[in-house]
Amino acid sequence: MFGYRSGVHANTKFSPFMVSIGKTPRFTCDNSLVEFTNVEEEELTLEEMAQLMVEKLKLISNTHSFVLENVDQAQKRQHRNYVAQKNKQEFVGFEGGKTIVKLRKP
């Protein structure tokens, strides 16, 4: 499940984790490498924590805008491919539980 949520999807160009949380996911082995670079939350004042939250919300909002744009482009591409494929085929009927399709000549 972690692989699905952390992998970049073709249509959105982002991982579901990035879209919902606003940062790239880390493996547990990464935590020990990054701990010394992170600022401890106890050291931050309330105003600094609020500013960090506002910045994170802006990042998530911008990511969502990119995701919506990428999904819209993917849907348009898929629709064009569907129409192009549909125009190449002509429905003939059913025979023995199978759909019979006749290819049109260009």
Explain what you see.
- The chain has 106 residues and is of the alpha+beta class.
- The protein has one domain (2-103).
- Helices cover 58% and strands 12% of the residues.
- It has a two-stranded antiparallel ribbon with strand order 1-2.
- The chain is elongated and about 70 Å long.
Brief synopsis:
This protein is an alpha+beta fold. The protein has four helices and two strands, in the order ααααββ.
Quickly list its features:
106 residues, 4 helices, 58% helix
> Based on DSSP secondary structure assignment, what is the total number of beta strands?
2
* Fraction of residues in H or I helices: 55-70%
Strand order of the largest sheet: 1-2
Structural class: alpha+beta
Tally of helical segments: 4
Distance between the termini: 45 Å
Major sheet, described briefly? 2 strands, antiparallel
- Sketch the topology as an H/E string, one letter per element: HHHHEE
What's the domain count? 1
Low-confidence residue ranges: none
Query: How would you sum up the global shape?
Result: elongated
> Which percent band covers the strand fraction?
5-15%
- In oligomeric terms, what are we looking at? single chain
Q: Kindly state the mean pLDDT as a whole number? A: 78
Radius of gyration: 24 Å
